[in-house]
UniProtKB/TrEMBL annotation:
This is 4-hydroxy-tetrahydrodipicolinate synthase. The keyword Transcription does not apply. It catalyses: L-aspartate 4-semialdehyde + pyruvate = (2S,4S)-4-hydroxy-2,3,4,5-tetrahydrodipicolinate + H2O + H(+). Catalyzes the condensation of (S)-aspartate-beta-semialdehyde [(S)-ASA] and pyruvate to 4-hydroxy-tetrahydrodipicolinate (HTPA). HAMAP family: DapA.
Amino acid sequence: MNTLIGVGVALVTPFDENNKVDFDTLGRLIEFQIEGAVDYLVILGTTGETATLSMNEKKEIFSYVAKKVNGRIPLVAGIGGNNTGELLNSINEIDLSPYAAILSVSPYYNKPTQEGIYLHYAAIAEATNTPIIIYNVPGRTGSNVNAKTIVRLANDFDNIVGVKDASGDFEQYNMIMREKPAGFHLISGDDANFLPMVSLGAVGLISVAGNAFPKEIKQLTDFALENRWSEARVIHFALSPLFELCFTESNPAGIKAILNQIGKCSERTRLPLIPVTEPTRQQIKQEVEQLKNKKGQS
């Protein structure tokens, strides 16, 4: 799965003044990412506000993106949930032929045991031939997919090809890398943790900040994977305040505020998410201006 090496951007879903999906802006964001030379796009992950989209809207977005991209860059489809049976139906309903892989978040709210999580992913793996990336984000799901479960799934199913891990648990990352089968990918699910994760063997990043800074995140990723640590650190530290601001008032409100600041997308979100407060918006404006000045001086 070499298409999953490097940086994938978890694309936002823009909304218009009527709270409908803004496909024109979505198309421009896709072109912005391709121009930034990112390695792949992740469609309808957490950053895409998937939880507030209907099934019809999801199908429309998956279809639109595939047609717009037209094979120019690999695509990953975010398809997850906490109802295993319904999730399997969704996989059967969606045309996945243009997509290189499925990114599937671990079941949230239910708080299943590790055996329940294992059987959930086993059911997905048996229902499709499409490669699957486990998405572990305990801060949102309420439960961790532990390293033992991840390695077990990687060994038992050839089409479970990687894990996007946003747990922030480096002991877990160490165990995954030590015990995983060859070819199974550890992917950072957190812009801020990507650089140190590479030292353990992570092959890339699924980025939120890349929505607004695709060229910079691509350069950071390339430098890190080439072991050009000094150059990677310069970019990492320049962007790190914005990494934090992406999550100060919940994702994707932060990154949409950043995108609005650079003229790429409105701040509109769907309830229960709301745009960031004015103090955070001013912090974002200040950091974007500082970054612009640094780039101008370099």
